[in-house]
Amino acid sequence: MKQMTLLALQSIQTPSVAWTGLLPIIILAAAAVLLLTICSLFPDVITTKILSTYTATASLAALIATFPLWGKVQNSSEGPYSTLAGAFGIDGFSLFVTMLITIIVTIVCPLLSTFLERENVNGPEPYVLLLLAATGGIIMAGANDFIILFLGIEVLSISSYVLVAMNSKRIQSQEAGLKYFILGAFASGFLLYGIALLYGATGSTSFTAIKAFTQQVELANDALLLAALALLIIGLAFKVAAVPFHFWSPDVYQGSPTPFVAFMASAVKVSGFAAILRVLYVTLGEYRADWQPVIYAIAIATLLTGSLLAIVQTDLKRMLAYSSISHAGYLLVGTQAASDQGVKAVLFYLATYAFMVIGSFTVVAINAGDSGTETSLESVAGLATKKPLLAIPFTIFLLGQAGIPLTSGFFAKFYVIEAAIEERSFMLAIIAMIAAVIGAFLYLRILVTIWLTQATEQEDNANLPIPFEIGLVLVISVIATMFLGIWPEPLVEMVERAIPVLVAS
After folding, report:
1. What's the Rg (C-alpha) of the chain?
2. Residue 318 and residue 257: Cα distance in Å, rounded?
3. Which of 85, 152, 374, 429 is the most buried (most CB within 10 A)?
4. Most confident range, picked from 48-57, 132-141, 208-217, 449-458
5. Of all helices (H) and strands (E), which one includes residue 83?
């Protein structure tokens, strides 16, 4: 009996793991666990500044760890590869998203530190959750199996639910967290059910096996596969706040602490579209003729709904929430193209949009004052006179989101519309341009309030004392927005090397 047991154990082969490919994930996850351990042992020593510096350092370490991996996957002799028995792929796409997410976390940390000090919120939990959310987003970008993809989505989602409801002193934060959790649970249910049906139809959760299956079976001839695709699109569309799965976004953005909203509007959207491209473009690319019309319709609805509803709002965070929905529409335009050009456009858009939206929410957070709740449009009336150090960068970010030339937003919109035209989706391109005009009215309305409207209250015209860390965030965001608007080639060259591929085990 012992000999049989020994033989059985010997026959079980553990999968080979390329640990270096997982180094960014390991760094972030280990940093989160280590932070909890340190704070439990030395609770009185760790300050908010130390927590912020620690988190930013861990994120920068993960960013640096991607550089040798990027060089490796760009080498044709080594090329993209997989690990965890083919369940996780390391390619230019996953590494580009990893770099983008780690940069976002690094930039958000100073804003989060300032907010927590103002709110007198202590403890390592927000930073731990931020690190875990980033870990989940990176897992989503490199997933080569639906089990791994769902794991990444849940790590990101659960961390985000808690972050949104983190401020227990405000009922709005609690309400936003509850809404986000309930609706997010429904979306996860749709996604998981879609994965289950896909497994039932193909007999596997591996992207490689599923792609091989789709090359042999027509979607119209398999009802189970058709239902699986529909449920997957619903679940993923919720994560990026695409219409008609966007209802959670405005309420959650308005009620959540502003630093967490900045993270959600950038990193969560990046992760969501990384998952969409992995599933639709890479895994189910054989069915692109079937899912393209669906994404086409969702893109139109998202563009028009986000743009039209944004212009009737009176709260800045709700305005930016609907604006974010509209931006998701532009990203869906690039996704719908189902081409390398479309993927490049989406990645370029995500990178440039992240800096603009983080900068915008940073201005909103600082302008909100000690209460942190004054985010109405009237709160920025006369901002150019009262606080020019906030008005100038805010103007640049708004012009960038409007797609004005000499900002990165212009090239972002240009590339996604170009991808649609190359795919001969002329009507979609026209609607995208119409939505851009409508969106420009929204940003113009805010700019008029900033520069041409008199303040409702008499305030000292002295510049607002901005903490050094916050000033650094604004400067980095402004430089990125302006630099990529004048010379986009460095980022274009990167995204050209970041086309997602299916890495076999």
Report:
1. 23
2. 13
3. 152
4. 132-141
5. strand 81-83
Number of structural domains found in the chain: 1
Residue 179 to residue 165: CA distance in whole angstroms: 10
Q: Give me the percent of the chain exceeding a pLDDT of 70.
A: 93
Residue 495 pairs with which residues in a beta bridge? none
Question: Does the structure show a pLDDT above 50 at 350?
Answer: yes
For residue 397, CA distances in Å to 363, 367, 471 come to 10, 15, 15
- Sign (positive/negative) of CA torsion 339, 345, 348, 350? negative
Strand partners, 257: none
Cα 485 to Cα 341: distance, rounded to the nearest angstrom: 19
Whether residue 13 is contained in a domain is answered as no
- Which one-letter amino acid corresponds to residue 347? L
Contacts of 488 by beta carbon, 8 Å cutoff, 6+ apart: 348, 408, 411
- Packed helices 288-310 and 316-336: angle between N→C axes, nearest 10 degrees: 160
Mean pLDDT of 135-144: 94
Nearest of 96, 147, 173, 47 to residue 351 by alpha carbon:
96
Q: What is the DSSP letter of 206?
A: B
d(CA 354, CA 352): 5
pLDDT tens digits for range 178-234: 889 998 999 999 999 999 999 999 999 999 999 999 988 888 888 899 999 999 999
- C-alpha–C-alpha distance, residues 477 and 312, integer Å: 27
Contact yes or no for 381/453 (Cβ under 8 A): yes
Q: What one-letter code names the amino acid at 377?
A: L
Question: Average pLDDT, stretch 417-430?
Answer: 94
**Residue 461's pLDDT is what?**
39
Give the alpha-carbon dihedral of 394, 245, 343, 258, to 10 degrees: 30
Q: Are 313 and 322 in contact (CB under 8 A)?
A: yes
SS3 content of the chain, % helix, strand, coil (to 5): 75, 0, 20
Structure tokens at 200: 């039932």
State both tokens at 433.
């341009």
Contact 316, 380 (CB under 8 A): yes
503 located within any domain: no
Whether 1 maps to a domain, the answer reads no
- Identify whether the C-beta of residue 324 lies closer than 8 Å to the C-beta of residue 401: no
What is the extent of the structural domain holding 99? 18-496
Bond from prior residue into 124 cis (ω within 30 degrees of 0): no
Give the count of alpha carbons within 13 A of 63, CB side only: 16
Does this model's pTM top 0.85? My answer is yes
Token pair recorded at residue 206 = 């591996």
Q: Which amino acid is at 293?
A: P
501 is a domain residue: no
Find the range with the poorest average confidence among 171-175, 272-276, 293-297: 171-175
Give the dihedral sign, CA 175/178/180/182.
negative
pLDDT at 309: 94
Tokens in use for 23?
A: 């180094």
